[in-house]
Amino acid sequence: MAQLWGGRFTKETDQLVYNFNASITFDQKFYKQDIEGSIAHVVMLGKQGILTKEEMQKIVKCLDEIRSDVERGKLEISAEYEDIHSFVEATLINRLADVGKKLHTGRSRNDQVALDMRLYTRLEILHMDELLEELLKVLLKIMEEHIQTIMPGFTHLQKAQPITLAHHMGAYFEMFKRDRERLYDIFKRMNYCPLGSGALAGTTYPLDRDYTAELMGFFGPTLNSMDGVSDRDYLIEFLSALSTIMMHLSRFSEEIIIWNSNEYQFVELDDAYSTGSSIMPQKKNPDIAELVRGKTGRVYGALMSLLTTMKGIPLAYNKDMQEDKELAFDAMDTVKGCVALFTGMLSTMKFNQDIMEKSSKNGFTNATDAADYLVNHGVPFRDAHGIVGQIVLYCVDKNIAIDDMSIEELKAISPVFEEDVYEAVSMETCVNKRLTIGAPGKEAMEQVIALERKYLEESCDRLWFDLGENMLDIVEDV
Fold first, then answer.
1. Cα(432)–Cα(257) distance, rounded to whole angstroms?
2. Are the C-beta atoms of residues 196 and 209 closer than 8 Å to each other?
3. Active site residues per annotation
4. Rounded Cα–Cα distance for residues 114 and 317 (Å)
5. Residues 6+ apart with CB under 8 A from 105
6. Predicted pLDDT at 460
7. Which of 61, 171, 402, 471 falls 20 to 30 Å from 272 in CA-CA distance?
8. 5: pLDDT confidence band, cut at 50, 70 and 90?
């Protein structure tokens, strides 16, 4: 059992206790962040004269070698160490002897782990933003190609009014755009450096926390050392944002599953994103969409777990907070995989445009426009509503659409109808006369698409602003 805190103790920790307490099996995931934070810390110690320039250079060089050895498979992160921090420091001491023992000067494992988790989460936010950007690009492409692809819009899963596929996809564009805005807000709130907070009360060493924060691309240091080591709000916010992303993906998946059914046949999934049945040869199952829908609960669970863990923790650090990692790591990986797969599935999906438009006609989605026609010809709306209700009953009985009724049949129900009613209730008219911003009409959609295209151009890589010098550059400068 390799641990760095044994001086106070006179006998070995029980093996079961040690195993229960250890976190190396999962926190090794941020070995890069641990090494990068250590490099920044040591460079600052050298700048402040707490370490000699020679000591600083030796430690930085060795830390970089440790990182390189791990990445190339020359050095294995062993489970004999309690956590990733112990592994890195023990390896450094093994290679540099007494010089390596100076790494932890002015630092606690509490502010070290707080930094590592913040660095890791920050990078995950950036990666998630990139994935959502790719999804938005696919959605925008579909919108551009299907401005005039008519389909039914639904309320209560009942056909309601005709819209376009571009309009429907635009609703999801707005959802995922809001998801990116949430990530941006979280990034701005969380991008402050806890290193230098010590165990909870700072340190007597003359650290330059502003310099350390600058090296790692933070806006500045955290302003309260107790909060610095015990804050996990940013992670709760990120898990909440990930849960919302999954909720949006799950809603979208549910629709694709319905659209893919034999009853709808609105879409055809690419073979690469479908599976068959072991017994029924005719099946083509939307497994990716179903798994995305299913994994949503898994991500929700991570959020609820961390909220529950944090609710009873007094200031400052407590070991409970070690539970911030496993489920959070799993949630991050799950959402990244779901967004990437969903984007691939959506980009290869084929839309059956004729079936979509036929479904709109058969569902009386132009009934509201028929009522509006009567209103525009002097019929009070409530009377018009009743007249069109009679027309729908007539069509249901005859198994026809409103468009299929003869003018004589229409006049038999209301003499107000004239030949121009057919133009007024055509699917194209029903859609395209809705021209207010946000509506499905062609002109309105073209205006929105132009705005969405501009949004993507302006928001591209906006989170990848200067995160400070790359650690490799720091090593070279040293």
1. 28
2. yes
3. 156, 277
4. 10
5. 45, 50, 51, 205
6. 72
7. 171
8. very low
Amino acid identity at 26: F
Longest dimension (CA), the chain: 101
Under 8 Å between Cβ of 27 and 325: yes
Computed over every residue of the chain, the mean pLDDT equals 91
State which H helix or E strand residue 354 sits in: helix 353-362
Angle formed at CA 286 by CA 151 and CA 265, multiple of 5 degrees: 30
How far the first Cα of the chain sits from its last, in Å, is 34
* Strand 150-155, strand 267-268: pairing: unpaired
What are the structure tokens assigned to 100, written together?
């390596």
- The answer to whether the CB of 303 falls within 8 A of the CB of 243 is yes
- Please report the pLDDT score of residue 279 as a whole number: 59
Of 226, 163, 218, 170, whose CA–CA distance to 449 is shortest? 170
Say what the pTM is. 0.91
d(CA 34, CA 85): 7
Classify residue 414 by its DSSP letter.
-
Is the distance from CB of 313 to CB of 226 less than 8 angstroms? no
Mean pLDDT across 294-298 = 97
User: In Å, how far are 122, 130, 166, 181 from 459, measured between CA atoms?
Assistant: 18, 11, 21, 10
Tell me, what DSSP letter sits at residue 223?
Answer: S
- The torsion angle over the Cα atoms of residues 117, 123, 127 and 133, rounded to 10 degrees, is 120
Sequence letter at residue 362: N
Per-residue pLDDT at 23: 74
